[in-house]
Specification:
By secondary structure, the protein is α/β, with parallel strands linked by helices. The protein folds into 2 domains: about 190 residues, Type I PLP-dependent aspartate aminotransferase-like (Major domain) (Aspartate Aminotransferase, domain 2, 3-Layer(aba) Sandwich); about 120 residues, Aspartate Aminotransferase, domain 1, CATH 3.90.1150.10. The chain contains 14 helices and 12 strands. The strands form 3 sheets. A 7-stranded mixed β-sheet has the order 1-9-8-5-4-2-3, sandwiched between helices. Strands 10-11-12 form a 3-stranded antiparallel β-sheet. A hairpin with a 2-residue loop joins β6 and β7. It is globular, with a radius of gyration of 20 Å. It binds pyridoxal-5'-phosphate (PLP). Pyridoxal-5'-phosphate binds next to α3 and α4.
Length: about 400
């Protein structure tokens, strides 16, 4: 079965990981490589993007404040905001690019607003210039760029992480580059960096050999599991049994859950892997973008498919399309051995029980996206033959 996502691991990545078992300070190696790639003065590595966000919120000293974010984003973002004793302020997104419009952000700003998390869903850049204009009169509101899905995205000719106080990245399996687990905060602010580094280095635990070993095994398992040869049984286990539920544990809908190692440093071997993946960014992004554009072009006229408006600077962490009768389409593709995905968080976030108390306003666009979103496989391990097969199979689908 063709998997929807697959980490781009190979022998050179394995060799980088193994080097990390001998070499020290993999985290610093990764930070240096990533700061260079992003052009930022500082990069701070964590086990998850959310660990970085949590540390940032702590350092900023926010308590009982509102943090503006899209109603359609990863559920772990509001989880962290609530866990840090603050409040998510959800803003509906635009159907055309899955992002908040600057005007909607401006309308949500209130006396309690501390920050805006500007998210670039699936690598579609939010209108950063518009956001800057909208927030011009609110000098105290901080912008944090959520680039978990936006490596390589740019808006008005500049990388999306250029604007604001800091930007967050994530490197879990399935992201544009992966260090198995991992996240990064980048910033040009010397003071913020120094404070965050001190807090991380003082309070985060060292991971220990067992965690490094487990994550190295996970590297090998995911390298093989997400290939066409092995993915059939994996997909069966995920869909039909509870065996792999632990992978989606942190997306729980009835309580706030954070990983047990939220405040643990990244194992050194994963740092070496991350640094090596960083050196491959250009090659990996180019392939994803090419594949995604091919689907958009070849399936443009297909009835029932609504492609997002292509824009300059979109880096396509995923290849999203809104499909009428989406679940029927997913079944059709799965029947032909192709996994087209939907989101783990298949809801407008304010509709999820744990976030209902924070709902304010109308979230019809986020709801519509969640119900119709289909994520086509676009990872760099796909062959030309795979892409042609996916297109041909999608063309054969007839809406009921
Ligand atoms: C948009 C977005 N923001 C933040 C995160 C959090 O990243 P992490 O899982 O590394 O904490 C994710 C994770 O997938 C995400 O998709």
């Amino acid at each position: 079965m063709i998997p929807r996502l697959s980490p781009s691991f190979g022998f050179s990545d394995l060799s980088a990981l193994l080097k990390g078992w001998i070499g020290k300070d993999g985290g610093e190696v990764f930070e240096a490589a990533f700061a260079e790639y992003t052009g930022k003065r500082h990069a701070l590595v964590f086990s998850y993007g959310r660990s970085g966000l949590y540390t940032l919120i702590k350092v900023m000293g926010w308590h009982d404040r509102e943090i503006i974010m899209p109603a359609f984003t990863c559920a772990v973002v509001p989880n962290v905001v609530i866990a840090s004793h603050n409040k998510p302020r959800f803003v509906d997104v635009e159907v055309r690019d899955f992002n908040m419009s600057p005007r909607a952000v401006g309308a949500a700003v209130g006396r309690e607003t501390a920050a805006v998390i500007a998210t670039h869903m699936y690598g579609f850049p939010m209108d950063i210039v518009g956001l800057g204009k909208e927030l011009k009169k609110h000098k105290n509101i901080v912008v944090i760029q959520d680039c978990a899905l936006a490596l390589g995205s740019y808006s008005a000719g500049a990388p999306v992480w250029d604007m604001g106080l800091a930007a967050l990245f994530s490197f879990s399996i399935g992201k544009q580059i992966s260090s198995v687990e991992g996240g990064m905060i980048v910033t040009d602010d010397d003071h913020l960096y120094a404070e965050m580094k001190t807090l991380r280095d003082r309070t985060f635990q060292n991971p220990g050999m067992v965690r490094a070993f487990k994550q190295s095994v996970f590297f090998l398992a995911s390298w093989f599991a997400f290939t066409s040869w092995f993915y059939g049984p994996v997909h069966f286990l995920a869909e039909r049994t509870a065996a792999l539920n632990f992978l989606a544990d942190y997306y729980s809908q009835d309580r706030i859950r954070l990983p047990d190692n939220l405040m643990e440093k990244l194992p050194s071997c994963l740092g070496y892997l991350g640094a090596y993946q960083t050196s491959r960014i250009k090659e990996l992004l180019t392939k994803r973008i090419d594949i995604s554009r091919t689907y958009g072009r070849e399936l443009k006229e297909k009835p029932g498919f609504h492609w997002p408006v292509p824009q300059e600077g979109t880096s396509y962490s995923h290849c999203p399309c809104l499909v009428d009768d989406r679940d029927n389409f997913l079944d059709h593709m799965a029947h032909h051995g192709i996994e087209v995905g939907k989101e783990v968080f298949d809801y407008a976030l304010p509709d999820i029980p744990v976030f209902v108390p924070y709902a304010q306003g109308v979230y019809s666009n986020a709801r519509e996206i969640a119900h119709r979103l289909a994520l086509f496989p676009n990872h760099p391990r796909l062959t030309q033959g795979d892409v042609e097969r996916i297109i041909a199979t999608a063309r054969k689908w007839r809406t009921t």
